[in-house]
Amino acid sequence: MDQKEKDHDPPAAPEEEPSASPKPKSDSSEEQEKIPIQSPPHEGAASLLGSEGTGIIQNIQLENFMCHAMLGPVKFGSNVNFVVGHRGKSALLTALVLGLGGKSLGSSLGLFVKDGETSASISITLCNTGDRAFKSELYGDSITVQRCISVSGTTSYKLKDQARNVVSSQETELTAMLDHFRIQVDNPATILQQEMGRQFFQIRHDGDRYRFFLKTTGLEQKLAEHSEILQRKAKSQREIDQKKEQLEKLKNQGIAIENHIQKMVTLKENLEDLKHEMAWALVSESEKDLDDMISDVNAGDEVTVKLNEKLEASKASFNETEKQYKTICENLQKLKEEAAALEPKRIEAKEETKSTDKAYYQAEAFYKSSQSELDNLEKIAELLRNKIEDQKKCEAIEKGGKKCSQIKKEESDVQQTLHQQQQQLTQWKEYKSDPLKRFGPQIPALLEAVDDAHRQGSFTFKPIGPLGACIRLRDPEFALAIESCLKDLLLAFFCDNHKDEQILQELMKRFYSLDSPQPQIIVSAFECEMYDVTDRAACHPEFPTVLTALEIDNTVVANTLIDMRGIESVLLIKSNSLAREVMQDQDPPKNCSKVLTACGDEVFEQCYYSCEESRPTYLGDVETEIRHLEKEIDIKTAQLLAFQQQTSLLEADVRKNQETIDHHYQHLKETKIGVVIMTLEIKDLEEEDTSQSIGLSVLKEDAQETKEEMKEIEGKMKAQKEKMENLRQLKIDAEQRYNDFKLKCNQVSEGIESLTEEENQTALEMNTKRQSVLHYEERLEQHLNFLQVKKEELALKKTELEKEISLAKRVCSERKEVTKSASDLDIEISGLRKAIQTESYSHGSQEEAIAITLLPCPQHTVAM
Prior knowledge:
- There is one protein chain.
- The chain is an alpha+beta fold.
- It is about 60% helix and about 10% strand.
- The protein has 18 helices and 16 strands.
- It has helices at about 45-50, 90-100, 135-140, 170-180, 195-200, 205-215, 220-370, 375-435, 445-455, 480-485, 500-510, 545-550, 555-565, 575-585, 620-685, 695-810, 820-845, 845-855; strands spanning about 35, 55-65, 70-75, 80-85, 120-125, 140-150, 155-160, 165-170, 470-475, 495, 520-525, 550, 570, 595, 600-605, 610.
- It has a six-stranded antiparallel sheet. It has a four-stranded mixed sheet with strand order 13-14-15-16.
- β7 and β8 form a beta hairpin.
- α7 packs parallel to α15 (about 620-685), α7 (about 220-370) runs antiparallel to α16 (about 695-810) and α7 packs antiparallel against α17.
- It is elongated.
- The two termini are about 40 Å apart.
């Protein structure tokens, strides 16, 4: 490691440890060591340092150096200084050598860093006063040299001024300062290290002693400086010879420059003529461009006329289709009215059929009952059949009562639904005048309050909302699907910051009670750019995404829907079956998360979810919803009327069945009495004597009476059979009428289905023609805009032409007929300019050439 010392004093006798290469961890052998730190400078250096002690050491301070964590600052006097003590003497001497850039120490610099530390620091302050001060305007009266040594061996220098400010960190600056003060820390005559002292006493050859003599006396440095002066002298001689050769060349260049000047003048004149032609060539080309633009504008006017004709034809076709659609709708409405009128008649015929069937069956039962009276055994069976018939009648009454109750309940439900739909119709008519009420009855008042607060400066940015009012549907048929996608976000508001959010919440509390939910508030900076969703948007050539199906003017709204609902990855498909085919029967489209159908159903890759709502609430077309509700109300009104008629018929049947049951109960009572009487008579006859002859005649009389009674019963049966035939005919007629009404109803239903299909087809055709009208309107608008731009360009071109003519006249007042194009002239001009530039590069400009010819020949002086 190189060890540098700054002292100019003669070395002390080598009384320290045997090796001058330090072991940074040990300093115990330094007892009684005396080191002269300052002494009169060697070789008469006192006169060079000056009377004020310029370059002497004022103090030194060590940190983490060798075995010392902190040593100093050690201050020195202006004369000879002796350092005595048990420890630190060798450390100070070594630090002086290293701190002033010494290289005579052979050890690694990292060995001088104290164990456990990462770096060491040496600070040495030198006096900088007097006539020989080193850069006193920068450093002042003292210079502090600070050297930092890391444990890895790297080192750095800092030279500081009197105020301890860093002036330089270059080692060359330190070398210059040491040369200025003539400080030689590696000179053994200044600081003799112990190891070098031992080597000096061991020298045996005169050559080695002579080299040591040259080094200590400074002659070695003088020889190096003398060699450098000789080299500089040889270099100066070479430069003189080169200058003589250059002078001869300059004389030859003068002749070439004169020729160059003549050539430059000719080229510039040609260039000026070409510029004149160029100016009028540009005018000619602009006039040609102007003629072409006028032709384009005229052609554009002709295209405008053709587009207007196509638009009018498309509108006429659309109007014709619209009239056809209205005619179909009117016919369909008439058929529906006819079907509604036929339905009660069909129901009436059906009830009549049931009534005749019932009367016929009743007559047939009575006929059978009369026949059973011919046999006493049949009376018990008749009794049982009557009981069964009565039970059936009771069940029929009970069933009729339940059915009547059920119909009344359905009638009540229909009445309630009708009332709700009438309320919805009233609301939709209100929405027609004030669309914001669709998002809540409080919204108009809330928005007025927001406007007032914004005018008063309460908001940094005016809040946006509700979200549903900020978007528009490109296709109204997707209203329910988009509502199913966005859900409660349609009622949300947007604020730029949380302060605006708090103010908006306070305004909402005025219009929303504590138990009613408030709209959601989304905080997002208004000054933002629209997301680029090109790489993550769902891709399909036929079906749009929710993002493309919406017209969104506000960037904050669009970005929020992308973040919270991912609308760029949701496809819209009207048909449920087609949606299943696209999403589930084949690989889903790229980046598609799900598909929404026109009825609001959600179709995923593995599942399908139906929408609970049947109609849109916030995004639907007001006129369409009003027409739909009016149709539903008409249908519910017809159903309610049919239920009321059916209820009346059932109540009449129940009353009739009750009368029949009462009649059967009376007949059953009379039969039971007859059975009891006959049973008693049989017992009396069995108890009488078998030999009585009077009983035979009585029995004959009874038999005659029974025969007469049987004849009477047969007469009744005959009359009853005739009645049954009449009832059978009535039953057949009623069934025929019912079948006729049923056939008519089926025919009307088929007509309604046919007209409905024709209506849908016509609506589709009308929509296509509407799109055609919109297409031609859009094309016409784009063409008119394009034509307007062309006309503006034409006007601008005329202005530019006038400016070019004016500019050309300024360049050349008389118009020139130019046969060459501007591009050809530009090539010629470029060629001339390159020729001029080449001449300028080879000989300089005309002015420079003239100046060179006027320059005197240089005179060289050589100082030896």
